[in-house]
């Protein structure tokens, strides 16, 4: 179950080759058969949701909730004969028990930074060809007929393969690749006053990296792991807490596991849910992270190993892991793992 990303630079252009060597597994829990595990008065169970249509399978895409509906957009896929790689601008919306076509991005984008709240889904940077990175920023504010992704102020530096989150009316993006080097910078855009442009925050005090997990939990933002080096492969197990009020980072105790290309969401004010981990292998495990002491507890398994996929907080008690990259054979999956949180 190998997963490696190879990065090379040529003439200032970025070339990213994702090489996945994954042994896929059957779903650990289906619609009516749940795997129930408990941790600190929360029960976790996993079911398999309704998959994306095969032709809409994708990896390296974004996801969020808009008008109460799950939305995924962008990413990449391969032709059936595995000879041509496609960079996607299409989107899919889960509506009335099925996936329907949604508003397409203005251009193909994969591996961007993104986040969402009630005001919309925000996406910044990424790549349209695997060689260069973008500075474009867009928002989709609703799903009404005729809705389109609107442009927002461009990033100060074109960036891809980083992480983003929307918190308290602000869109934060951090880490990633600038095309010829990795970065540990962080920028923020006030989404209610985008005309003010992007403001530089204090940089992550750790090494520059790609593919970290990044999410809000309580009154802080937390960044987990990432990929420091491609060759030799160097996944990270550090975790940092960012205080938006003080513009201040604090390094916490290291995580027990290394990982990158994973996704996280808050369980409560002191715990994260973390899944889609790669470390040279891809793991289907679902973990909680205690932000007080960095301890981790396994609470379940995805229906299929998958990485570079969004973990979407559908509501207080439900998260969806949608699609992703499951193997080394230029495949993409449309599988949906539905994670249920049940307060005991």
List keywords for this structure.
Neuraminidase; 47% strand; mainly beta; five-stranded antiparallel β-sheet; globular; 344 residues; four-stranded antiparallel β-sheet; disordered N terminus
Q: What's the layout of helices and strands?
A:
Layout: E1 2-10, E2 13-21, E3 37-39, E4 42-48, E5 62-66, E6 69-73, E7 76-78, E8 85-87, E9 91-95, E10 98-102, E11 113-117, E12 120-124, E13 137-140, E14 150-152, E15 163-167, E16 170-174, E17 186-190, E18 199-200, E19 213-217, E20 220-229, E21 234-243, E22 248-251, E23 263-268, E24 271-275, E25 285-290, E26 296-301, E27 311-315, E28 318-324, E29 333-343
Antiparallel strand pairs: 1-2, 3-4, 4-29, 5-6, 6-9, 7-8, 9-10, 11-12, 12-13, 13-14, 15-16, 16-17, 17-18, 19-20, 20-21, 21-22, 23-24, 24-25, 25-26, 27-28, 28-29
Walk me through the structure:
This protein has about 350 residues and is mainly β. The chain has one domain (about 1-344): Neuraminidase (6 Propeller), CATH 2.120.10. About 0% of the residues lie in helices and about 45% in strands. The strands form 8 sheets. A 5-stranded antiparallel beta sheet has the order 3-4-29-28-27, with no helix packed on it. The model is unreliable at about 1-40 (pLDDT under 50).
Give the low-pLDDT segments.
1-38
Shape: globular
Helix content: under 10%
Number of helices: 0
Element order, helices and strands? Answer: EEEEEEEEEEEEEEEEEEEEEEEEEEEEE
Going by CATH, what is the homologous superfamily? Kelch-type beta propeller
Name the CATH architecture.
Answer: 6 Propeller
Q: Residue-averaged pLDDT, rounded?
A: 89
Give the strand line-up of the largest sheet.
Answer: 3-4-29-28-27
Query: Radius of gyration in whole Å, from Cα?
Result: 18 Å
Please write the CATH class name: Mainly Beta
Largest sheet: 5 strands, antiparallel
Number of strands: 29
Query: How far is the N terminus from the C terminus?
Result: 35 Å
CATH fold naming: Neuraminidase
Structural class by SSE content: mainly beta
State which percent range the strand residues make up. Answer: over 45%
When the domains are counted, the total is: 1
């Amino acid at each position: 179950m190998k997963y490696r990303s190879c990065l090379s630079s040529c003439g200032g252009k970025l070339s990213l080759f994702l090489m996945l060597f994954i042994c896929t597994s059957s779903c650990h829990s289906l619609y009516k058969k749940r795997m129930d595990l408990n941790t600190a008065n929360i029960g976790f169970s996993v079911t398999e949701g309704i998959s994306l249509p095969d032709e809409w399978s994708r990896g390296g895409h974004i996801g969020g909730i808009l008008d109460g509906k799950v939305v995924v957009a962008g990413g990449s896929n391969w032709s059936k004969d595995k000879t041509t790689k496609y960079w996607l601008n299409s989107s899919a919306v889960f509506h009335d028990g099925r996936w329907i076509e949604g508003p397409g991005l203005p251009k193909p984008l994969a591996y961007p930074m993104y986040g969402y709240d009630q005001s919309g889904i925000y996406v910044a940077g990424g790549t349209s060809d695997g060689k260069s990175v973008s500075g474009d920023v867009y928002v989709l504010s609703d799903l009404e007929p005729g809705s389109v992704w609107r442009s927002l102020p461009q990033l100060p530096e074109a960036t891809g393969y980083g992480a983003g989150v929307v918190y308290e009316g602000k869109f934060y993006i951090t880490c990633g690749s600038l095309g010829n080097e990795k970065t540990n910078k962080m920028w923020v855009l006030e989404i209610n006053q985008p005309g003010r442009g992007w403001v530089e925050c204090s940089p992550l005090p750790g090494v520059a990296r790609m593919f970290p997990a990044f999410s809000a939990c309580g009154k802080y933002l937390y960044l987990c792991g990432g990929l420091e080096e491609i060759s030799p492969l160097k996944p990270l197990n550090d975790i940092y807490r960012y205080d938006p009020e003080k513009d201040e980072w604090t390094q916490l105790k290291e995580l027990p596991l290394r990982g990158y290309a994973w996704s996280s969401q808050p369980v409560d004010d002191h715990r994260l849910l973390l899944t889609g981990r790669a470390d040279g292998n891809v793991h289907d495990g679902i973990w909680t992270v205690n932000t007080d002491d960095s301890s981790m507890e396994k609470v379940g398994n995805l229906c299929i190993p998958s990485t570079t996929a969004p973990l979407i907080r559908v509501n207080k008690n439900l998260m969806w892991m949608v699609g992703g990259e499951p193997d080394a054979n230029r495949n993409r999956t449309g599988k949906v793992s539905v994670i249920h949180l049940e307060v005991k």
